[in-house]
Structures are given as C-alpha cells and as structure tokens.
C-alpha cells in the first residue's frame, strides 16, 4: 500500500502534558497526580504527522496577524525557519496557492518549524519513588517513534493487538534508560547513578520495585536487523550498585506479556509469565476453510453489543489467540533457581496475598466468542500457595455475551475478587443480585462477601455489606474502618459508606451522599499509606494536642473561581474538618500527590507529616516539592526545563459566559505571546472542544479546572497554533443536559448550537477573535461535534477539523458514548444526531482525519470514508486524510507531523486567509464596497476607500501585496 495518497489515510490525539510522575512499588503509572488508593497501571502513548505546500506570493514584514509565514513549511532543514513565536510584529502576510497539486502530492509533509520545534522537543523523564521514599528513578524517554515501529506486523485478536514477534501487546512505549537519585534529608537530590550493564538500544518496560526497595525488575527488548523487536527478557538491577543482569541464565526463557508479565512474590522471588518452551510454531491459516462461518441464535437470546473491533473471526483466529496468549508461569529467585508454577493457561492476572503466602490467579479459556472481546470470555479464578500448590477454585464464570448495554450492567457471578489490603490473606468480592441487568429493580443490588484464602471445611463466605446501587470499590484501613463506594449512572448518585469490617454489631452508615456531577460538594478522597506488606490502606493521623485520630482528605477544591486543591484533617466520627493545607489561589496550582512519611507502621503524627506536591502556574511547568510539617517548609526536588520556551509567555485566561437558556459555561482562552488586542486587533481563532452529558443545569454550570494550571501542549494539541498567531479557545464546555426523565441527546443539536453560539459571541465580544475567521475542531466525539456544528451552525465557523470521529450513529445501533438506548428505541435521536444525515447542509470546508487501524468502539475508519463520500456527493469542500498504521490516537512522528501540516494548511487556507477574505477584497476593489479587515462593515464606494485609507501602513501594504493590484485606498493614503 502506498503511503498517503491524494486522499491520505490520518488523525490526532493530545499527548499527556509533561507532568508524568510514577509513585509505586509495582508497575509505575503515568499520572499527573496520584489517586489516594493504590496505584493504577498505565503506559504512556504519543501521537501526530507533516510536510509543506506552495505559496502564491512573497512575505512582507507586517503586523497583519491574519496569516503567518509560509516558507517555514518548506523542508525540515531548509528555508526561513523563523515563525511568529515572539512579539506581535514578527509575522508576515502570505497567500496560499489554490492549485490542488500542491496539496495532492504523495508523501508525508512537515508543519512549520515553529510547530515542529515544539513537538520535537526532548520529553521530560518520568519519576518513580522507592517504597522507602529514599530514592527516585528518572526514567528516560525518547521522542516520537518512527512510522516503521507502527508498521510492524500485528495480530488483531479478541479485542487486543499482539506483536507476534515479541509476544506482547503491539505498539508499546518504552524507556531508554534509568537514572537513580538519592533523596537527601534536606529534600535535595543526590547525583544521578545510571543503571549499568544494559545492552545498547535496550527498550525497557514494566519496571517495578521489590518490596524492600533493594532491587528493580523490568523487561528488556532490542531492535533486530529486520526492523522487528526481540522477545522480552526479565532483567533485575541492584539499586545500591546500579548493576543490572538478566534474571534467567538461559537465553530461551522469554516473557509472555500479552496480558500480565511478572510480579514480586517476595523480596527475592518473582512469578513470571513465560512463553511455553514446547510451544512450537504458530498455527498456519488453512488455504481452504473447513466450512462456512456460522453464528446462530436459535435460542432467541437477547444479545446486544456495542461495535467492538478486532474480534475473533474464525477457528484459525481462535487457535492463534490461544497460541499467543497461553502462558507457563515460572517462579524465579534472584539466586537463579527456577520452578514451573501450575499448568500452561491463558493467565490474565496474578496477585500475591499481602503475607506472600498465596497467589490469586485469573485465567480465561474456551469457548471463545466472535461477538465480544476477551474480557467477556469464560473466566476462572483460583487460589494457589506461593510454593506452587493448588488450594481451591473460587469460580469459573461462563462466556458473557449477553451483558445488557445499559450503564451499570455487569457480569453475573463473582466479580472484583481481590485481597484485603489490611489482612494477611483474606479475600473479598462482589456478587450482583439483579442478574447483572441495571434495568432490574431489586434491593439489595450488590452484596460484598469476604472469606479467608484457605477456609475451614464449614467456613462460609461472610456478608460484609449490602448495596442498593452498583458497587464501586473499597478503601481498607483496619477492622474498625473501611469505606465502601457505590454509584448509579442514571441519577449520577454516589455514596460513601463507613463500615467496621471486624464488628458485626456496628451498623454501616452513610458518610457522603451526593451527585457525581456536583464538583463543588466533593469532600475529597482519603489519602492512603503504604504498609510494610506493600499494600495501601487509609492513613490515620494523630494530633498530639488532643490525641484524636483523623483521616486526610485530599480534594480538588472546585469553586466558582476554579480548582483550589486542599488537604483536610477529617474526623470520621463527627464529620468535622480542619484545613491544614491549600493551594495558592493567586498564582499557582499545587496538588497533593502522595504521602512521604509512611515508612513506619502505626498512626502518623501531624507534626511529622511529609507530603509530595506538584506545583505549576500558567507559565511555569510542573515541578515537584516535599512539604514537611509542622513548619510546612517546601523543598523543590525537581528542576525540569520549560518544554517549549518559545511559548513561555503565552497568555491564558479562564473565562465564563452564559448560554441563552441560562446555563453558565466556561472555557480557557489562550492568546499568543506578545499579543495586544488594542494594537493587533482580532486574530483568527481555533475553537477545540468535546461535549459532555449532564443531568442538571446547575452541575453543568460548575467550573472545572484551574486558571493557574500550566498549559500542557502535546504533539497534536490545538495550543500549537499559538505559535502561528492564532487565538485558541480550548475546552469550551458543551453541556448536553437531560433533566429528570428527559434524555440529554433528545435535544443534542439544540444545546450543541446554543453552547457554540455563546462561545463564539464571547470571543468576539472580547475583541480577540475575527468573527469571519473562527475555526472549530475536535477529536473522536469532538469530531462528531465539529461536523454537526458545520451542518447546523454554519454562521459560526469558517471551517472545521474533525479527527477520528463517528458521523453515522446508525452504524453504532446498540448505544454510543453515553447513550444507553438502542437505535430502535430512539430512532429519531440517532438519525437527527448523525451529521451524515445532514451532509447536504455542510457548506463550510471540513478536513477529516482518521487512523486506518482505528480500534476504538464506534469510530471505525469506515465512518470517515462514508462521510467523505456523502460530502463529496453534495459538492462540499472537503478533504479526507487516512493515516496508515495509526489507531484511534496517533503514534508515529511521520503521521503526527503530517496531521499538523494538514491542519495548519487548512487553517491558513480556510481561516487565516480564507477565500471569503479574497472575495471581500475583490468586492472592495471592483465595487468599492465590502470589508477589508474583521472590524469593517459593508459600506459604499467612498466608505470602502476611507476604510482602506485609515488602515495602518503595515496592514494596508500586507493587503495590497496579497491582492496584487492597486487598491482604492492608495490615492487617499498619498494625501
């Protein structure tokens, strides 16, 4: 397949901001700030693409900011690379060639240097703290990967994508190196010690600390001569010496990382998922099928599924999935001893008990399904002793193809099976009482059970708590305290219960009962501390003056002025609170990340409290601090450079405005460095958003986010166009509200247009946006929004950019986004919401971008293909770019750069210098009437001349150079 054709194949997704912190003794997670319960696992992904097109005329030095230099688009190392990153007089006017050949050449393009330099900036390292909080790892990362990484063969099986060569998930990011720093008593960092002994070009994944903090375990893979990656091998490193070595002496033992990978059983032993040595070659696809592909529902079961992708298709796929996913577990000690653990199976998770005596194993098995992904395949959960002795089977759940599509519907049988964090080896789980169907009214709806890992003969599961809503998790503390969470999406209700797990005579009571949408009433979440066993439990804090025990509530502090994070001492018995820390609301946005004084057992003393915070401002990127009580002295422990100094002085403001139905809306307005509205006038503006559903106007009106947060700019962020002298309205709230029994989507178009009108009116009222030069864009559901706005509110926007969207809701008939009803239950809603059905109404230019291998439910690449054909069939000005090898978000540098080139070209051609402007100039020349700039109004011949005559010199000459002929204001200006 050739790379991008006239109709290229592309899309985009913003990368995380440079606030990546890992804080875990197991697999690190990429988060801005950590949850207080034990940490989640995550892998960062990056996404974007580009080149150049021809200019029609030379540039002229000017302060006319409707356009930007085009020669910066030339070649990566050629041409004038200067852009418009600085003062307001740094830009110049330019016209774009209408010749289609300039935009139809094959190959990847590069965006202007001012955008490219930001995207190519070296990524900041991720951080990982040791279990004892005495060391910090700096995990080095590379910039955007090449397209060749994405082009490697992958198997799409049962909802997962597998790199068969290295037997892991495909397209994994990785670290390139590990640096160790000691955290000194004064909070400063010691010199970096690099992990030594790694092979050149090592790709590092799945890094985790041993419980005592003395060793690191991680996987290493290498690039091979044919461009593929080698299989993964487990390595271990001594933290004190920095020396690393392979865990297995045999070169034939590799990790199978399709599902889980490895886990520390104790400080000297790991349980590893390995590829069975006797596996052999993968199954061959038969040249002639054994028979037709048949699916049957002769039992008349009701089976409704969303549009899952990458499902199994036939018996060969079933065999292939089983081949790659089957694992042989191996116990491996640091001294070289190896022991097989259990039979080969498709193990999806393995979890040691806190006392390291047992292992909880979860596996999946046949019969597989052709209509749902592997998460719904038959599921078996077993308890084994840590020495490899089988104890018992907890459950063997059947294939779950018929889980209702209604939110809060779940699988039948035992679910959420875990170890209690506060006990040596006690299990807990949940069982539904409504058959898993959220539409069934029953009380209780869920029951939580608990039982020891190896119960006595007559020991039955104990009921811990009953819930009328759907179970949402437990925060454990001890036998006197645990917090149980339940919620219900339909009503947005969330409750927190206080229970005493060890006291049957203490009645549970509700601690918090609120709406999940009401961010102003959020009391915060209890902070967790790490136990010696490596688990996380609710932290208890003691005040020396009164001897009482308190919890620490860490909250985002949502207010009408924005988020002001806080830390409260909370008396769980009386409900009283004492605020012991709060972010600076004037300049900074600071959040509590984790406890750093939890190395010892027992209650924490308030006078010895130490926490880790992240701190940032509008122009200062995130740094990490240690804050110590009682003085609350802050010590900065990182000093990361500004990731894009060329935009260091960008202007940011959180703005509020009102929709015509009275709903209060918010957005973040960004303006380029050096911009002065009184001097520079209105700018071309890019509006980038994503709709959200609410149950009440009050909740939709609440402010979310902080005006002091650092402007994180990812590889495909709309904020990149600040470097091109655009105003950017980021995240204007687009609330779709369905109060009471009303469904939000029944008035989707009406509310969508009203929200967009309010946002556009606000930026025009402020004088920062040219009303004729406002573009709209979005990714995924934001792309769906963009297409609908161009169809139903063409008066608001000059063009649109829609990336990786869905446009025909009848292709997702069993629900989409937050819509629970099926196509047959809400036919009008599905049809009226679909911009595909309104393709004949779209008259403004629209750029469609999509990944050719999109695996997101509902946004198949076909959605953009068919929408483009519908637009083209009605003569719309449109362009479709399909990105080879890219998924819902984009990963390769070539793809990302090309997306940026396509986007920039579209914005320059149809927004900054659109054909509408050319038409106005022609009208001014030929008819002596029309508009010259965004603030002009239609006037007669004399008026048109006077408007041109009154322009400042730079703007006038910029227009004349663009137009190419003498303008009617020349003579007037000579006088």
TrEMBL record:
<dbReference type="InterPro" id="IPR011042">
    <property type="entry name" value="6-blade_b-propeller_TolB-like"/>
</dbReference>
<keyword id="KW-0934">Plastid</keyword>
<comment type="function">
    <text>Serine-type protease active in vitro against the LHCII N-terminal. Cleaves its substrate on the carboxy-side of Glu residues.</text>
</comment>
<comment type="similarity">
    <text>Belongs to the peptidase S9D family.</text>
</comment>
<dbReference type="GO" id="GO:0009570">
    <property type="term" value="C:chloroplast stroma"/>
</dbReference>
<dbReference type="Pfam" id="PF00326">
    <property type="entry name" value="Peptidase_S9"/>
</dbReference>
<dbReference type="GO" id="GO:0006508">
    <property type="term" value="P:proteolysis"/>
</dbReference>
<dbReference type="InterPro" id="IPR001375">
    <property type="entry name" value="Peptidase_S9_cat"/>
</dbReference>
<keyword id="KW-0809">Transit peptide</keyword>
<dbReference type="InterPro" id="IPR029058">
    <property type="entry name" value="AB_hydrolase_fold"/>
</dbReference>
<keyword id="KW-0720">Serine protease</keyword>
<keyword id="KW-0378">Hydrolase</keyword>
<dbReference type="GO" id="GO:0004252">
    <property type="term" value="F:serine-type endopeptidase activity"/>
</dbReference>
<protein>
    <recommendedName>
        <fullName>Probable glutamyl endopeptidase, chloroplastic</fullName>
    </recommendedName>
</protein>
<feature type="domain" description="Peptidase S9 prolyl oligopeptidase catalytic">
    <location>
        <begin position="757"/>
        <end position="911"/>
    </location>
</feature>
<keyword id="KW-0150">Chloroplast</keyword>
<keyword id="KW-0645">Protease</keyword>
């Amino acid at each position: 397949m050739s790379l991008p054709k006239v109709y290229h194949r592309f899309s985009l997704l913003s990368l995380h901001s440079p606030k990546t912190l890992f804080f875990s003794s197991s697999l690190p997670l990429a988060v801005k700030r950590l949850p207080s319960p034990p940490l989640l696992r995550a892998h960062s992904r990056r996404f974007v693409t580009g080149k150049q097109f021809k200019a029609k005329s030379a540039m002229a030095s000017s302060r006319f900011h409707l356009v930007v230099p085009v020669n910066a688009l030339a070649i990566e190392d050629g041409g004038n690379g200067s852009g418009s990153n600085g003062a307001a007089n740094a830009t110049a006017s330019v016209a774009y060639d209408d010749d289609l050949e300039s935009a139809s050449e094959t190959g990847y393009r590069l965006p202007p240097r001012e955008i490219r330099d930001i995207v190519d900036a070296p990524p900041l390292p991720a951080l990982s703290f040791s279990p004892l909080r005495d060391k910090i790892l700096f995990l080095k990362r590379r910039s955007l990967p090449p397209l060749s990484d994405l082009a490697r063969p992958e198997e799409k099986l049962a909802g997962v994508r597998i790199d068969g060569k290295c037997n892991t998930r495909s397209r994994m990011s990785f670290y390139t190196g590990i640096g160790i720093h000691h955290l000194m008593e004064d909070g400063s960092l010691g010199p970096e010690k690099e992990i030594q002994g790694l092979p050149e070009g090592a790709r590092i994944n799945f890094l985790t600390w041993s419980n005592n903090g003395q060793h690191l375990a991680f996987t290493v893979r290498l690039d091979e001569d044919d461009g593929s990656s080698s299989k993964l091998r487990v390595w271990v490193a001594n933290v004190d010496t920095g020396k690393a070595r392979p865990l297995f002496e045999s070169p034939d033992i590799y990790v199978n990382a399709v599902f889980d990978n490895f886990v520390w059983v104790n400080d000297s032993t790991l349980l590893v998922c390995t590829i069975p040595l006797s596996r052999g070659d993968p199954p061959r696809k038969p040249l002639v099928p054994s028979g037709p592909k048949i699916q049957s529902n002769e039992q008349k079961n009701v089976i409704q599924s969303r549009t899952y992708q990458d499902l199994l298709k036939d018996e060969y796929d079933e065999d292939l999935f089983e081949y790659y996913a089957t694992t042989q577990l191996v116990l491996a000690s640091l001294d070289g001893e190896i022991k097989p653990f259990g039979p080969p199976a498709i193990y999806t998770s393995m979890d040691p008990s806190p006392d390291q005596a047992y292992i909880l194993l979860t596996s999946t098995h046949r019969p597989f399904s052709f209509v749902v992904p592997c998460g719904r395949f038959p599921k078996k959960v077993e308890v084994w002793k840590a020495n490899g002795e089988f104890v018992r089977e907890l459950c063997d759940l059947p294939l779950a193809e018929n889980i209702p599509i209604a939110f809060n519907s779940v699988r039948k049988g035992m679910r959420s099976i875990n170890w209690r964090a506060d006990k040596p080896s006690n299990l807990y789980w949940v069982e539904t009482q409504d058959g898993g169907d959220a539409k069934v009214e029953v009380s209780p709806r869920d029951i939580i059970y608990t039982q020891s890992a190896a119960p006595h003969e007559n020991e039955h599961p104990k009921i811990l708590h009953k819930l009328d809503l759907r179970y949402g998790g437990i925060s454990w503390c001890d036998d006197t305290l645990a917090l149980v969470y339940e919620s219900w999406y339909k009503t947005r209700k969330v409750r927190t219960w206080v229970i005493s797990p060890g006291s049957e005579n203490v009645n549970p009571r509700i601690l918090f009962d609120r709406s999940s949408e009401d961010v102003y009433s959020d009391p915060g979440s209890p902070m967790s501390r790490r136990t010696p066993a490596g688990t996380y439990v609710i932290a208890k804090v003691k005040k020396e003056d009164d001897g009482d025990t308190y919890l620490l509530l860490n909250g985002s502090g949502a207010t009408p002025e924005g988020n002001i994070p806080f830390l409260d001492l909370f008396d769980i018995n009386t409900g009283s609170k004492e605020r012991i820390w709060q972010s600076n609301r004037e300049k900074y946005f600071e959040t509590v990340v984790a406890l750093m004084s939890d190395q010892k057992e027992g209650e924490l003393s308030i006078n010895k409290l130490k926490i880790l915070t992240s701190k940032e401002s509008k122009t200062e990127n995130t740094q990490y601090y240690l804050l110590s009580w009682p003085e609350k002295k802050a010590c900065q422990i990182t000093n990361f450079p500004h990731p894009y100094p060329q935009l260091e002085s960008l202007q940011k403001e959180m703005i509020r405005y009102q929709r015509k139905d009275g709903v209060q809306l918010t957005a973040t307005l960004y303006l380029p460095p050096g911009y002065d509205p009184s001097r520079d006038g209105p700018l071309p503006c890019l509006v980038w958003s994503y709709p959200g559903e609410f149950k009440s106007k009050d909740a939709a009106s609440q402010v979310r986010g902080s005006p002091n947060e650092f402007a994180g700019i990812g590889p495909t962020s709309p904020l990149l166009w600040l470097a091109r002298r655009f105003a950017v309205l980021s995240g204007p709230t687009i609330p779709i509200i369905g109060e009471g029994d009303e469904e939000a989507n029944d008035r989707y178009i009406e509310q969508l247009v009203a929200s967009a009108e309010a946002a556009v009116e606000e930026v025009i009222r402020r004088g920062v946006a040219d009303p004729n030069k406002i573009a709209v864009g979005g990714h995924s559901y934001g792309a769906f929004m963009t297409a609908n706005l161009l169809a139903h509110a063409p008066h608001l926007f000059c063009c649109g950019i829609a990336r990786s969207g869905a446009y025909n809701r009848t292709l997702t008939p069993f629900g989409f986004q937050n819509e629970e009803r099926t196509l047959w239950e809400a036919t009008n809603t599905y049809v009226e919401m679909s911009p595909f059905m309104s393709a004949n109404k779209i008259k403004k230019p629209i750029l469609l971008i999509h990944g050719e291998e999109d695996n997101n439910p509902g946004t198949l690449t076909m959605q953009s293909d068919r929408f483009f054909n519908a637009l083209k069939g009605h003569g719309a000005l449109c362009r479709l770019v399909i990105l080879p090898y890219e998924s819902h978000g984009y990963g390769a540098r070539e793809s990302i750069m090309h997306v940026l080139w396509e986007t920039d070209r579209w914005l320059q051609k149809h927004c900054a210098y659109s054909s509408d402007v050319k038409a106005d100039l022609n009208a001014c020349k030929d008819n002596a009437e029309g508009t010259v700039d965004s603030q002009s109004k239609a006037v007669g011949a004399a008026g048109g001349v006077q408007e041109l005559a009154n322009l400042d010199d730079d703007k006038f000459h910029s227009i004349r150079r663009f137009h190419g002929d003498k303008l009617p204001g020349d003579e007037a200006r000579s006088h």
